[in-house]
Structures are given as structure tokens and as C-alpha cells.
Amino acid sequence: MTTRVGVVVFPGSNCEYDAALAVESLGATSTFVWHSTTHISDVDAIILPGGFAHGDYLRPGAIARFSPVMEAVAAFAADGGPVLGICNGFQVLTEAGLLPGALQKNRGLTFLCEPTTVVVSSTRSVLTRGASVGQELSVPINHFSGAYTCDDATHDMLVARDQIVLRYRDNPNGSRDDIAGVSNEAGNVVGLMPHPERATSALLGSEDGRVLLAGFLGVPALA
Q1: What's the CATH number for 4-217?
Q2: CA distances from 147 to 2, 10, 167 (A)
Q3: Whole-structure pTM over 0.90, yes or no?
Q4: Where in the chain are the domains?
């Protein structure tokens, strides 16, 4: 059965077509879900893509978390549905309380747009279930507020519950413990700063994003 993916679109999202094309290249279908939507149905998975939701005014994701669609996303996640937040989508998920921690401005206060290498730290999430612990993947980053931060108690919890799913090999932004992505305790909600949807073809410089997105969709990476 074809996996149906809802891609949430906020005012200021700019990676929704990238996300849609990436999942379609793996055999899924996609539909755009506007931020004012109050009920999400007929989808098997949800992606919150990158961009600048509501202009990133106040701070990234802080306004988007109040969009009506987020109640529907939270309900979908509570029922065990797979939810993925990429870059700005990761920021939205933390602001909405669906993922622990927060994202702050990069070390050195510089915008980063470059290839990076992430190392799979856990395979108990929907995003990394098709990978291997220790596997290195080349996936680009494109952010200004991408440094993951959390207090000591939250970090201890993340480690104890195996919720750190990806770490940077060479930390580009000052994220605590080299963290590039985390999941909720159940593993069905995941956020990461790198863009796997921009690493689905050798023509884009890397196909490694397919490993992650295929895991998210529950399909073979070479579909």
C-alpha cells in the first residue's frame, strides 16, 4: 500500500516541495496541509518542512506552534502516527512540546549552508530504523538557529531513553553533545536540523537522505 504523507505548510515555509518530491521519489504520495487546518485525515505520516514559519518572528517556531494544525499534529502523534520535523519543522516541534529541548542561534552567530556528516546514534526511531548505529550519512544543513540545547536533566533523559537519534561528526553549530536530531520517547516523532530531502540523488551531492526518509516511510531505500 502506498504511504500517504501530509506536508504541513505554514506562511513562510519554503521546503514543502522539496519534501514532497523526496517522499514521492521513494514511492509515497504527498498532499499539502495548510496551517489553518484543524483536522488531518487520510495520511499515514506527517512532515513539517523547513523554512521560516510565520517569518520566524519572536523566535523560530514560536508562533507556528499556535497554528490550528498543530493540535491535529499533536493528536496524530499521540495516536502513534509518524511525524518528522526538518530544520524549521524541528524548531516548531520543540516549541509545541512534542519534542524536548530547544534550538538556539548557531555558535559564532553565522548562518550555515553546507554539507555535513551525521552519525546514527539510535535506530529506535521511525527516521533511523532503516539505518545502523554508527552509520555515517552526508546530509546538508541550512540554518541560523540550529544549535540544539537542553538542561542537564533533559540531556540525561535523552541519553537514558536512547532518544538522541543523530549526532554531527564534526559539530558545525555548537549543538549540545553534537546533537543533530532527537525523538520523543515512543520514537514516532523525530526532529533534525539537517535536510534529508536535499540528499536523495547523486545529482544533489548525496543519496544518504534516502536512508532516513525510507525508514520514516517504512519502505526500501532503493524504491
Answers
A1: 3.40.50.880
A2: 35, 22, 12
A3: yes
A4: 4-217
Residue 202: which residues within 8 A CB-CB, separation 6 or more? none
Q: Catalytic residue numbers?
A: 87, 195, 197
Pairing of strands 179-183, 102-104: unpaired
b/e code 133-160 from CB counts within 10 Å (16+ = b): eeeebbbbbbbbbbbbbbeeebbeebee
* pLDDT tens-digit profile, the chain (223 residues): 689 999 999 999 999 999 999 999 999 999 999 999 999 989 999 999 999 999 988 899 999 999 999 999 999 999 999 999 999 999 999 999 999 999 999 999 999 999 999 999 999 999 999 999 999 999 999 999 999 999 999 999 999 999 999 999 999 999 999 999 999 999 999 999 999 999 999 988 899 999 999 999 988 765 4
